[in-house]
């Protein structure tokens, strides 16, 4: 089996040993990549969440791809603004900020480093960071980036009461393809999103597999509209999650960050090498053999992000 992890926050300082602004252990970024490759993760898409974060993601991807090291996956990235960070548009000047995003997208598209617009969308669980109207305004603005670049969209949706699906439907002619990543919504929301068209896909990670209701919704996703991800260092599948019972691949030698050992996973810090766990839960939930399911998911992902 081989994998493409469509959502990894590789610019997060956890991957260099920094947690909550405090250094806990030495930088093990290369070890994370090496474990990913040994787990047959061939490609990783780094998530961009702001203008500055997207710049960092591009630099990181280019740096490691230039090494031409077969021990590392190939790195790619998205460019966009997370809904909780949309205040940056107005704080830094909306027109210039959007223009700078587009310049970054077009530059990254030239060498294939940038493969999607995002992470953008709506998040009503964290309105303390950015209000609904500001989120909606700048979610809509980012469709223009997809239209001008002809790149797919990497989308975020949390507890939006239908607003997300409505905006996506109203702007569905602005993008060629899109994936709603880390989906954890109810069945009706899934149906509303899938009904927009066959160019809209669903991304599943550990946060999508927490409850029995989540698992029942997974059964409703057509496998030709499915992608998987880790959203590392977040969204690991924990023992308290409904999906955990289906995990076969476990990492017994993982160490707490306080007892860090180079070359071993850090407990509680998700990473791309764990993507097979997501596949295992989905495979068991929908009763489909892992290898064929992995092949279909890989084909879906490759078609959307790497055959443009």
From TrEMBL:
Gene3D superfamilies: Metal-dependent hydrolases. Coiled coil: none annotated. Keywords: Hydrolase, Metal-binding, Nuclease. The keyword Nuclease applies. GO terms for cellular component: cytosol. PROSITE patterns: TATD_3. The keyword Repeat does not apply. It comes from the Eukaryota. A divalent metal cation 1 binds at residues 119, 231. GO terms for molecular function: 3'-5'-DNA exonuclease activity; metal ion binding. A divalent metal cation 2 binds at residues 156, 181. Belongs to the metallo-dependent hydrolases superfamily. TatD-type hydrolase family. PANTHER family: DEOXYRIBONUCLEASE TATDN1, TATD FAMILY DEOXYRIBONUCLEASE. This is Deoxyribonuclease TATDN1. It comes from Acrasis kona.
């Amino acid at each position: 089996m081989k994998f493409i992890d469509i959502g990894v926050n590789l610019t997060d300082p956890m991957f260099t040993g920094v947690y909550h602004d405090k250094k806990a252990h030495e930088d093990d970024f290369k070890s994370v990549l090496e474990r990913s490759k040994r787990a047959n993760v061939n490609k990783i898409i780094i998530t961009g969440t702001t203008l500055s974060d997207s710049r960092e993601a591009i630099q990181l991807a280019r740096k490691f791809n230039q090494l031409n090291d077969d021990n590392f996956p190939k790195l790619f990235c998205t460019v966009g603004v997370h809904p909780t960070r949309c205040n940056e548009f107005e704080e830094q000047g909306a027109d210039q900020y959007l223009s700078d995003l587009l310049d970054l997208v077009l530059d990254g598209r030239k060498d294939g480093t940038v493969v999607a617009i995002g992470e953008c969308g709506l998040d009503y669980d964290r309105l303390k960071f950015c209000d609904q109207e500001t989120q909606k305004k700048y979610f809509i603005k980012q469709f223009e980036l997809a239209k001008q670049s002809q790149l797919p969209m990497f989308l975020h949706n949390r507890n939006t009461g239908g607003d997300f699906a409505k905006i996506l439907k109203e702007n569905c002619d602005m993008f060629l393809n899109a994936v709603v990543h880390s989906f954890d919504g109810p069945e009706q929301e899934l149906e509303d999103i899938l009904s927009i068209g066959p160019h809209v896909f669903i991304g599943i990670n550990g946060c999508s597999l927490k409850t029995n209701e989540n698992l029942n919704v997974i059964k409703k996703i057509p496998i030709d509209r499915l992608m998987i991800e880790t959203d590392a260092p977040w969204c690991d599948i924990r023992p308290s999650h409904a999906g955990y019972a289906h995990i076969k691949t476990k990492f017994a030698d993982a160490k707490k960050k306080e007892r860090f050992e180079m070359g071993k996973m850090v407990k509680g810090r998700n990473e791309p090498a764990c993507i097979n766990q997501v596949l295992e839960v989905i495979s068991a939930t929908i009763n489909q053999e892992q290898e064929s399911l992995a092949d279909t998911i890989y084909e879906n992902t490759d078609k959307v992000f790497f055959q443009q």
